[in-house]
Amino acid sequence: YYNSFYSLYSELNTGAEISPVGKLFMNNVYPIWHLWTEIREFNFLHFFIGNGLGSASAINSYYFYSNDMLNPNANIIRSLYETGVIGTLLFIAVFLTPIKKMYMNNIIHSKLIIFMLLMLGMYFAHRSAIPYIFLGMTLVVLKNKSITSGSTSG
Length: 154
Known about the structure:
mainly alpha
């Protein structure tokens, strides 16, 4: 993998045949390569706002000369290509904002932010529902805890 990845840029840049090992992870590389070629041509629009939902599969089909649905394995690549930097940052903000707006102990608040960032990291590494589940459970537990502690103190 190291040798294949090391020679990948020159293979893509010259249009040479991709090594057989490199073909195994090219569904993760082609969307980023396409963004890079647009940036080299000073077309920054798609880098910032993306190419649209589902376009990562379309660009992989284009480069693989195939009609199959070939999505990237890593969701960070899919997110950056489809929604751009702005959309990816908004997605992260959607999960961090509810936690930031909660009133709680600073130590618990910091731990929740770190755990949510870890959950988002896992989500971006490989697509899953973990940030949705974690945020939902956190909100339910903290809301229940605040109701319980509020009724016993009065």
